[in-house]
Specification:
The chain is globular, with a radius of gyration of 26 Å. 23% of the residues are buried. The longest helix has 31 residues. It has 4 domains: 204 residues, no CATH class; 53 residues; 57 residues, no CATH class; 101 residues, no CATH class. The chain is of the alpha+beta class. A hairpin with a 3-residue loop joins strand 4 and strand 5. The strands form 5 sheets. It has a 3-stranded mixed beta sheet. A 3-stranded antiparallel beta sheet has the order 10-11-12. 43% of the residues lie in helices and 13% in strands.
């Protein structure tokens, strides 16, 4: 294993001195990439050193570099927050809005970093907010537990909370080390925690946000244009699923359009009043029993979207025109315990598996399960049963990856010392998967927990 210190020695920005270079003032040559005395990464000894790494070393070093970048990102936030404190606001008494720093401090940072003033102001405000409101998250960034994008999501999604509530949300999400398999999963966990910490506020914000629903248009290059609709989540998903369902139904062997093109054509036809075949739509909503009974304000969940306030769940339940399928969860474990069934059992089993694992079960893949294949973990041809303990949603790409691993091991590649190895997967209990990479690393993926503590 190559530690990060070896990388640092091989590509020492201090020219081998172990110290930090004096970058001089803003007009010095040293501030220009590739200036006098500077050695680029491709000309450094590091390139020759990296040529000796094997695949496992590359992965380990990549993780260490990512953690080191996160540590410096945290340090930069602290430095920017300190800079903001050195530029206090100057209020003349007429403007009593809260200001964390002088209104022109962001312009000063922007000039130094060659950014627009607006971007400089936003970055400074983000640093001040993160350091002041969620120090635990900044510490997690410094340890490489989360990255800057996750911290950004945490700060953005808690912007309407008090400092105490924001810190509570951060503590809850980071209690397991922040370990979500992707940025989307992390953001969903934050939204879920926000609703739990401030359910009444979440409902107020939801109603206020619904007042901002709108349709916009924008010109694009090459004679194209974009039309967008901002809608409440349940309406957005219902509209998309209708367009998606009609587009899939419209496909044929003679139709050379891909699915995206058919969706665009269906949307235009619907807006212009052209008839299409009718399709049955059904919304699935994961509901804590206490929420449905009005005993608690726990969030519900729409597979493929994420958490929604309890008020939306109860509105859908009370609306006789809303075709929805309740999926009840255990109030203690937060696992799916019952899926309302109106069709034959195989459809009920498919629904249960897709709700249990709402995205592709490959580590970090966010493809929603409704758009995935239901695959036998142990191949059906090898006597794998068709039951909840041997089925899981896999997007087409990772379905192919998994089946490549089901085939016999390939012959040695000319550039490799041994035979080609592939990904392997086991489902150790229903919904819990263990993937093993070609380098022998293991990754665990479990069912969605709908009542995170």
């Amino acid at each position: 294993m190559y530690p990060f210190s070896e990388f640092w020695k091989a590509n020492d920005p201090g020219g081998g001195s172990g110290g930090t270079k004096d970058v001089g003032g803003p007009d010095s040559d040293a501030t220009v990439a590739g200036g006098p005395g500077e050695v680029g990464i491709l000309e450094s000894p590091f390139v020759r050193w990296a040529a000796d790494l094997d695949a496992s070393d590359c992965l380990r070093l990549d993780v260490q570099i990512e953690q080191e970048i996160a540590r410096w990102e945290a340090a930069r936030l602290v430095v920017r927050a300190r800079f903001a404190r050195l530029r206090p606001p100057e209020l003349d008494g007429s403007d009593q809005r809260y200001q964390a720093f002088d209104e022109f401090a962001g312009d000063e940072l922007a000039a130094e970093l060659k950014l627009s003033p607006a971007v400089g102001g936003r970055r400074l405000a983000f640093a001040v907010s993160a350091v002041r409101r969620m120090p635990a998250a900044v510490n997690a960034l410094s340890f490489g537990t989360i990255d800057l994008e996750r911290l950004n999501a945490l700060e953005r999604l808690t912007a309407n909370l008090t400092d105490e509530q924001a810190d509570e949300v951060a503590g809850g999400v980071l209690s397991n080390g922040g370990g979500r398999p992707s940025h989307n999963a992390f953001a969903a966990a934050v939204r879920r925690r926000v609703i739990k910490v401030d359910p009444q506020g979440a409902e107020r914000r939801r109603r206020k946000a619904a007042m901002a629903r709108r349709v916009t248009m924008r010109a694009e290059a090459d004679g194209m244009g974009r039309i967008s609709a901002l809608l409440p989540a349940e309406r957005m998903l219902a509209a998309f699923r209708k367009v998606d369902g009609l587009a899939k139904k419209a496909g044929s062997e003679q139709d050379r359009r891909d699915l995206d093109q058919r969706r665009a054509d269906v949307l235009y036809d619907l807006i212009m009043g052209r008839d299409h075949d009718r399709i049955n739509l059904e919304m699935q909503v994961i509901v804590p029993v206490e929420c449905l009974l009005g005993l608690a304000e726990k969030p519900g969940e729409i597979p493929g979207y994420g958490p929604i306030p309890a008020g939306i769940v109860r509105e859908m339940a009370a609306n006789p025109r809303c075709t929805w399928r309740r999926i009840l969860t255990d109030p203690v474990e937060g696992q799916v315990v019952e899926t309302a069934s109106r069709r034959f059992p195989s459809a009920a089993l498919a629904r249960h598996v897709r709700v249990r694992n709402p995205t592709c079960v490959f580590p970090g893949c966010d493809k929603r399960s409704a758009a995935c294949d239901l695959d036998h973990t142990k191949p059906h041809g090898q006597h794998g049963p068709t039951d909840e303990g041997n089925l899981g949603p896999e997007c087409r790409r990772h379905h192919r990856l998994k089946h490549a691993g089901d085939r016999p091991t390939g012959a040695a590649h000319p550039a490799m010392a041994g035979p080609v190895t592939r990904w392997k997967v086991r489902q150790v209990r229903p919904g819990h998967f263990i993937w093993t990479s070609p380098e022998g690393r293991t990754y665990r993926v479990g069912p969605e927990r709908h009542d995170e503590k």
